[in-house]
Each structure stands twice: as structure tokens, then as C-alpha cells.
Amino acid sequence: MSVFQTHEGRVAVVTGAGRGIGQAIAVDLGARGATVVAVDLNSPGETVALLADKGHTALGLTADVSNPEQTAAVGEEIAHRFGRADILVNNAGIFPFLDIDELDYDTWRRVLAVNLDSQFLMVKAVLPTMKKGGWGRIVNLTSNSIVTNVAGISHYMASKMGNIGFSRGLANDLAPFGITVNAVGPTLTITPGSQQVHPQEALEAAAQAQAIKRNGLPEDLTGTIAFLTSDDAAFVTGQTVMADGGYAR
Questions:
Q1: DSSP of the chain, one letter per residue?
Q2: pTM here?
Q3: Is 5 a domain residue?
């Protein structure tokens, strides 16, 4: 599929970019002309190779985005290499299933740290150069799980509601600097991670609950992300877009 060079000259940072949704977003932004910084807890080498094979400029950084020191180092490396970050897509996340009786404090904190704290930390890491540029796009991934009746994800739902609140509040803070902030909520999406966690019957049930009765793919999110990180979305901020096949209708 051909895409327009809507992001040419932009530096785009994508977390959780080693595989799945993050990898698809990173590859798409690269195809649209952005220089891509792929950040992942594990090596994002596969994503960087996919971009390089297509002639796109990319940098891979390995970091735990829930760690303040490591995210600060990511921001410093981006500033050193490229002088700025124009786009930040906070995609990193984890989703262990545990009923409240099984959920211990350490797991609660880990889910909030990876799913919510990381978004705050990455914003802090790239914001100084983004503000200097007078233009920026931040997209925080949330989830349509906030409107489901699925048991065993109270910790995950808390983190994902937090993503929305953070995005709305941050939109107010950053509007004067030409920076927009929005949240995007996918449905249960077919990725290596989700297939390890969810049995086939859960995937089928999720698809049947949607208006579009198939499971989401990582590529189903890239157009929405591309729009929200483009010049065309200059008047869209503080919003939550559910790109979920009509589940949250």
C-alpha cells in the first residue's frame, strides 16, 4: 500500500516498537517520511531492519520505559542524534490477567508503571526539545477494555483509564506550545503478545462483540495514528479515539 509523505522531516518516537502494534506504527510512520526512534524493553532490531530495508532512517533504543533514569537517557540520546522529537507514540504496555484475590501489590504497581508511568516519563524525556520546536504530536495508547465487562483486568483497566485522564490534562498544558495530545484505544488485537495471553475462544468472542466482526490487526491502527500525528490534526486535542471495530459503540 502506498502512503503519502505526510511526516517527512519529523522525528517520531514509538515505545513498545519491537513487535506487534508498536512495530506496525513505527514502520508506517517511517513509510510516511518520518525518522523513527524505536524504543523497546527488548531489542527493537527487527523493526529497525524492516525500516532500513525500505530505505527509511531509524534508530533502535533498548530501554525500560517505566524507569526514570532509562527514559531520561532515551531523551538525551534522541536530542544528541536528531536535535529534537516531534512525535511521541506511547504504545508500551502489559496485560496480565489476575482476579483481585490473586493480584498482589507488586503486580499492581508493575502494570501501572509500564502502562501509565511510562507515558509520563517519556513525555518528560522528549518535551524540552518538542516545546522548543513549537510543534508536537503525542498519542497515548489506551484500550477499549475500559468499557468491557471482562473479569481479571481491574489493574489493567485502572491503568488504561489513567491514560485517558493523563492525555486530557496534558492537552491543556501543552496546547500553548503547538503540541496536541490524544489517546487511541484499540480492541483486542492479534499480536504475538495477545495470542500468548488470550485463548482462541476469547479472540472470537471479542470479534463478535464488535460491529466489524473480525479481530483487529496492528495495521488497523496505523491510519488513525498517522492522522493524529500529522499537520491535518492540528485542531484535534484532548480526545480519545476508539479504533476498535465498533466495540465501544
A1: -----TTTT-EEEEESTTSHHHHHHHHHHHHTT-EEEEEESS--HHHHHHHHHTT--EEEEE--TT-HHHHHHHHHHHHHHHS---EEEE---------TTT--HHHHHHHHIIIIIHHHHHHHHHHHHHHHHT-EEEEEE--GGGG---SS-HHHHHHHHHHHHHHHHHHHHHGGGTEEEEEEEE-SB--HHHHHHS-HHHHHHHHHTSSS-S-B-THHHHHHHHHHTSGGGTT--S-EEEESTTTT-
A2: 0.95
A3: no
